[in-house]
Specification:
single chain, 382 residues, alpha/beta, four-stranded mixed sheet, globular, binds zinc ion
Length: 382
């Protein structure tokens, strides 16, 4: 299988052998619709190869997040016992999660069939949506820009952390970045092949060398004030675009925790990735869903580190959030002891899941503004 993505033509990645993955594992059992082909039967571009890349990625995402989530975490009730992947859902350059499963499309561009299930990063991104939905269902369809944006960031973070599960990729990325994980690398560049395919018809909609890059310097602006769309080089309020503010900070957090390790080796990088993921899990379960959600998440991550590590990684967290404008310098330095204690108690009490609208407020708006005859009722953040 591939380790992270097919790569963009002609710079395709080399497939590597992996053990046959197990899908039906606790706490995130997955399944693939249809019959399982024989492993080892074929190479890239065949259905059997696509099946086993998808299976490996589903399994790796589950193994990445499984040890980090609170006891009792399970898929959203509408998903059922196992999350089912549909590998050929139609002709499109797309993939998505809904509460019936994860759906992967394919489309032929310039003679290359781009099947999104053949990219580990895309499969791990969509599985990330399902895992965040299991932890915090309130984020799934809240009428809030920053909740949708965090969902997209969490998807890319899921791909990043799943890549960093592999010792071979940890070693490769340390060589590629010369130990500075903030740099653009194979693991910061998301979905190179899908990015290439979209670029053939929409050259400015994606990055020049991938779909999105977590190695970026996008600075927080209130998304409500941004354009609803635009070229990839600019920040817009479109959720995938705005997600880069948070995912960019997260890459810097992994890089910062890594720099704080005694040994700057692949084992130190494995620890940094796991710790950053753990602090994010602690946070998303406990942080209230408010309109300024990015800042809320940032404050809780600093508290989660205080609680778990006595604040060891506070400097890395503060620096990353300040550099992306998610926290102001004042806010990052003025989290009071009392506020930390209050947030820490919320993290200690955290329980995953809960009612879809828990903590949210029902708001009714007139449909006429949008050409609809009836009023619309939305779940709004506090
Ligand atoms: Zn997504």
């Amino acid at each position: 299988m591939y380790e992270d993505d097919p790569g963009f033509p002609p710079q395709v990645n080399m497939p590597v052998p992996h053990p046959v993955p197990h899908l039906d594992t606790h706490p995130f059992p997955t399944a693939i619709a249809g019959n399982a082909p024989q492993p080892d039967s074929a190479g890239p571009g065949t259905e059997a190869f696509r099946y086993w890349v998808a299976a490996d990625s589903l399994s790796r995402a589950g193994q990445t997040w499984g040890p980090l989530v609170p006891t009792g975490t399970q898929w959203h009730p509408q998903v059922g016992r196992a999350l089912t992947a549909h590998l050929n859902a139609g002709d499109d350059l797309n993939a998505f999660y809904d509460r019936r499963g994860v759906w992967f499309f394919r489309h032929t561009v310039a003679g290359v069939t781009v099947a999104t299930c053949e990219s580990n990063e895309i499969v791990e991104h969509e599985t990330g949506h399902a895992i965040l939905d299991a932890l915090r269902p309130q984020l799934f369809d809240t009428a809030s820009a920053e909740a949708a944006d965090l969902h997209e960031a969490f998807g890319d973070i899921s791909a990043l952390l799943s890549s960093l599960q592999l010792e071979s990729l940890r070693t490769a990325v340390l060589a590629e970045t010369q130990g500075d994980l903030e740099r653009s690398s194979r693991i910061s560049r998301m979905a190179e092949q899908l990015g290439w395919a979209i670029r053939q018809s929409h050259p400015n909609m994606v990055d020049p060398d991938c779909l999105r890059n977590m190695s970026n310097s996008f600075f927080y602006r209130d998304p409500v004030l941004l354009d609803p769309g635009g070229p990839a080089s600019m920040l817009s309020s479109e959720p995938h675009s705005f997600s880069r503010v948070f995912s960019g900070a997260f890459l810097k957090i992994v890089a910062g925790i890594f720099r704080q390790q005694d040994l700057q080796d692949q084992a130190g990088l494995a620890f940094a990735a796991e710790m950053a993921g753990q602090l994010l899990v602690d946070t998303v379960v406990a942080a209230p869903v408010v309109s300024a959600y990015y800042a809320q998440v940032a404050g809780h991550m600093i508290t989660a580190d205080q609680r778990r590590n006595g604040g060891t990684y506070g400097p890395s967290l503060r620096s990353a959030f300040i550099r992306h404008g998610i926290l102001s310098l004042e806010a990052a330095t003025s989290l009071t002891e009392q506020e930390m204690t209050r947030r820490s108690a919320a993290i200690a009490d955290m329980a995953p899941g809960g009612d879809d609208a828990q903590g949210l407020t029902a708001v009714t708006i007139q449909g006429a503004t949008y050409g609809i005859t009836q009023p619309l009722t939305l779940s709004a953040p506090s």
